[in-house]
Design brief:
22% strand, 5-stranded mixed barrel, pyruvate-formate lyase- activating enzyme, Rossmann fold, 3 domains, binds 5'-deoxyadenosine, binds iron/sulfur cluster, OB fold (Dihydrolipoamide Acetyltransferase, E2P)
Length: 470
């Protein structure tokens, strides 16, 4: 049994990170024969991608996926810790899982992901949710086959959450959600320690993957017909800093573009590490998509300092303007937190000011949520909940106005769209994303799925557009 410790998770050891390659224990190949699994994923792209890994591990043991939880022999919740409401959703859903477990004691129940990396959550599940059979963390996903095997063989509850990251595991299998676009991890963890953020505790220290492994994975994806890769990390612009002296994110982006894959994306950028070389590489290669997610978090210098973001409003605007100048066609989106401890009306107005200046293509907006163990959770907070909600509402209205305005520029224009499949909302329509990451719905048939087609935009809304394939 391993329970994570917050104190240990904070530590950044200088220890060299080893690389190991994943190999399935051949004795476990039929462990799940005739059995089904159901997985529910909360949170960010990193978690979505981890679930693709978990699915492949289960399928390598002959489990089959079901999207009906009631029919499953094993139920897994891959959880998120970023804000309190992510927690609440998981604990809410656990009630439903408990109900199924009461009806069928043979059901295997499993919780994994960022939430269980929190010491208090791991302890709570251990002590109060005794019917949960397996708990594993973000650092040992590759151990799932062995953990499952031990549970089944020994009939003993398995709680295996490590505080500290281990090796980088290569050659992970993935059952990818899409046949056309793929996530590719380029690094794990984060060392930025923004004061509000739990990620450096739940995902460990920054560890970049070796470029050879990344580029080989992309070449394999191309052989399998993939059109688009998204290079994934908490802080991708810091790629390589922990591994190379002379190879950084701009080099990796360039090498990725040179593989010839049709579309290259990357998330998430931190303004601090966004250098001029990066901008010129994005400009140079047409297969690097003109889309940048550049979290602002706040427009107030005072709050940015308290957040530990390491840039000022002025510096953010300078970078934003540089990007827009070099890449006028690009879309830029952002993340903003309102109601950080002690945020005054003036601080909030500074945020609105940046939004009015940058007119983001879209923004993800959040109310500050104190995360246990982070410095910001201990800061004095005298802003009322009502005030925070009112600020969020004001911000959202402004953000939505600019999203619609940005989309209006697309009306009657022809843009390239990678058609991914049928629209969730309307079976008669196909959906896909433009190079600039705008969601587009179009009329069409199966023959366009998986292709990058030219679409004339006929109508725009705040969050999507309609168009016709031409
Ligand atoms: N409270 C509210 N929002 C947060 N984010 C990260 N931590 C918190 C928190 N404690 C937001 C940031 C980040 C995005 C992924 O989630 O805006 O960029
Ligand atoms: Fe969290 Fe900051 Fe790291 Fe992003 S850069 S994951 S906000 S600590």
């Amino acid at each position: 049994m391993h329970i994570p410790s917050l104190k240990e998770a904070k530590v950044r050891s200088k220890k060299l990170v080893n690389i190991s390659e994943y190999i399935l224990n051949q004795n476990l190949k039929e462990l799940g024969l005739g059995k089904k699994y159901y997985i529910r994923t909360y949170g960010c792209q990193m978690n979505e991608h981890d679930s693709e890994n978990i699915k492949a591990l289960l399928e390598s043991m002959s489990f089959k996926e079901t999207d009906e939880m009631e029919k499953a022999d094993i139920v897994l919740l891959n959880t998120c810790a970023i804000r309190e409401n992510a927690h609440n959703k998981v604990f809410g859903f656990l009630g439903r899982v408990k109900h199924l477990k009461d009806e069928n004691p043979n059901l295997i129940t499993c919780i994994c992901g960022c939430m269980v990396q929190e010491e208090s959550v791991a302890l709570e599940i251990m002590n109060k949710y005794k019917w949960v059979d397996i708990v594993f963390g973000t650092h040992n996903i590759h151990e799932l086959p062995d953990i499952l095997n031990r549970l089944i063989k020994k009939q003993e509850r398995q709680i295996e959450v490590y505080s500290i990251e281990g090796d980088i595991v290569e050659k992970n299998p993935y059952k990818r959600d899409s046949q056309y676009k793929a996530w590719v991890n380029i690094m794990y963890g984060c060392d930025k320690f923004c004061t509000y953020c739990i990620v450096p505790y739940t995902r460990g220290k920054q560890r970049s993957r070796k470029k050879e492994y990344i580029l080989n994975e992309i070449k394999e994806l191309m052989k399998d017909g993939y059109k688009e890769v998204t290079l994934l990390g908490q802080n991708v612009n810091a790629y390589g800093k922990d591994l190379y002296d002379d190879y950084d994110m701009s080099n990796l982006l360039e090498d990725t573009a040179l593989t010839g894959i049709e579309r290259v994306r990357f998330v998430t950028s931190h303004p601090w590490d966004f250098n001029d070389k990066m901008i010129s590489i994005i400009k140079k290669y047409p297969n690097i998509m003109p889309y940048i997610h550049l979290p602002l978090q706040s427009g107030s210098d005072r709050i940015l300092k308290l957040m530990g973001r390491r840039y000022t409003k002025e510096e953010y605007l300078k970078l934003f303007n540089k990007l827009k100048e070099a890449l006028p066609y690009s879309s830029i989106t952002t993340d903003i937190i309102v109601g950080f401890p002690g945020e005054t009306e003036k601080d909030f107005n500074d945020t609105l000011d940046v939004v009015n200046t940058c007119k983001f293509d879209s923004a993800f907006t959040f109310i500050f949520s104190p995360r246990e163990g982070t410095p910001a959770s201990k800061m004095e907070d005298n802003v009322t909940k009502e005030e925070k909600e009112a600020r969020l509402e004001t911000l959202n209205q402004l953000v939505n106005k600019y999203s619609k305005q940005a989309n209006m520029n697309y009306l009657n224009k022809v843009v390239p769209v990678l058609i991914e499949g049928y629209s969730d909302k309307d079976d008669n329509k196909l959906m896909g994303y433009t190079d600039t990451m705008k969601l587009v719905n179009v009329k069409g048939d199966e023959s366009s799925i998986g292709k990058i087609v030219n679409v004339k935009i006929t109508d725009v809304k705040t969050w999507s557009m309609d168009g016709e394939i031409i």
